[in-house]
Amino acid sequence: MTSVFDREDILFQVVVNHEEQYSIWPDYKAVPEGWRTVGKSGMKKECLAYIEEVWTDMRPLSLRQKMAEQA
């Protein structure tokens, strides 16, 4: 069975969690607890391109904050 995340023919939406980590989620499914939509949806390639553009620091928010406190 093929995973829904391997499909190129369905709509996805971009989601983000409290640590500002991004992912894609099928548009037809409820967003899992702990994640929220960012207002971007489209085909898989479009959503992944958006994430690549906006998620410039892969470190979780809590780590970035801790490092800033120690600086």
From TrEMBL:
One of its GO terms (cellular component) is cytosol. Residues 3-53 form the MbtH-like domain. Coiled coil: none annotated. It holds the Pfam family MbtH. It comes from the Bacteria. GO terms for biological process: siderophore biosynthetic process. InterPro entries: MbtH-like_dom (IPR005153), MbtH-like_sf (IPR038020), MLP_fam (IPR037407). This is MbtH family protein.
